Amino acid sequence: MNRANVREAVSRAHHEEWARVVAALTRRFGDLDIAEEAAAEAFATAVERWPTDGVPPNPGAWLTTTANRKAIDRIRRENKRDDKHKEAQMVYDADPPEPVGAIDDDRLRLIFICCHPSLAMRTRVALTLRMVGGLTVPEIARAYLVAETAMERRITRAKTKIKAARIPYRVPSTEDLPARVSGVLTVLFLVFNEGYLATGPDTDPVRHDLTAEAIRLTRLIRALLPDDGEVAGLLALMLLIEARRPARVSGSGELVALDEQDRGAWDVALIAEGHRLVRERLAAAATGLAPGRYQILAAINAIHTSARDVRDTDWSQVLALYNQLARLDPSPVIALNRAIAVAELDGPEVALAAVNRLDGALADYHAYHATRADLLRRLGRSQQSRAAYDKAIELAGNTAETAYLTRRRDQLR
């Protein structure tokens, strides 16, 4: 096997096995720092040894075993310095059984640690992206538009706080789960978004490993809370977005906008499952249960995936749902997405006026400038459109999206 194939195998193993290795080590040693460092050392060892020894038949098992040895070596060194022989012995002793919570899944337990309410929301997301998603600190820093050193400190402080507070490594009990699930759903959706439109310029533009992991974990939470409308709504939303992934990036690596996608390439099984979940939530809403944010977003995506052609999209329904969502979540991003529906019904000039009012809140958001650029293009204001495209390209981190925006800008007269 040549070095290119080995590099590909290591990269694939990192995507598929990172969370499993970190979660298994966290469960055994009860320390996120040890788990993260040992996992990273195991992958570094794979980079060194696999080109010579070959890729093992079971890369995940090899990495877990290697990471365990690295963790034990670290604990030995620390225990030798501190003369903690009893702690060293614990490494070899069988761990005493501990309550695992409502479901026994290492990665789900890791999620609930990373999403603990004692941490700020941005810290929860960053820690989840690092510990569960396997993103590097530079990748996460780019997603947050902060310096790498600041992000490193944020993640380190979070791990220190978890250790100092002795936060248990388990899924909350069934009684405590509903109060904790909202924050977890937020984190899972942000992880999914990072996979669906990756922010790092040196990563794949679409990271299926992250979207698949977010969907898998959301399915587990739905199994715990089958009557929770927002869990079902988030799962439906993810499935309907993921269904479009095969048509989202062209063969040349350029983002393909929704109105240009080959709808025949969409995953019909995922769409059918997503539509079924949306219908279930609509039936629940008819009984007086008001839908939440994820349920409304899922319904919007159900409309898009129901249209066999972009011209068949029921924009009046889309706008009505955005109006409902804006009352529930009056955020600038929701207002921006609502303006796109307004453009289809009332024209680009009306939509542009609404978008311009968001400048103060979204000046550093690339999608704001991309939306302005498109509306200005439709109004024939090419010079202003070009400037808006330039700003969107400057702020966009995704390579496929940058390629798409560059082409649209260069098509201007």
From TrEMBL:
PANTHER family registered for this protein in UniProt: BLL6612 PROTEIN (PTHR47756:SF2), BLL6612 PROTEIN-RELATED (PTHR47756)
Gene Ontology MF: a single term: sigma factor activity
Would the keyword Plastid be found if you checked this record's keyword annotation? no
Which protein are we looking at?
A: RNA polymerase sigma-70 factor (ECF subfamily)
Every RNA polymerase sigma factor 70 region 4 type domain range = 111-162
Where the record annotates domain DUF6596, the positions are 180-280
Highest classification ranks of the organism = Bacteria, Bacillati, Actinomycetota, Actinomycetes, Kitasatosporales
Alphabetized, the UniProt keywords read: Sigma factor, Transcription, Transcription regulation
Biological process according to GO? DNA-templated transcription initiation
Q: Which family does it belong to?
A: Belongs to the sigma-70 factor family. ECF subfamily.
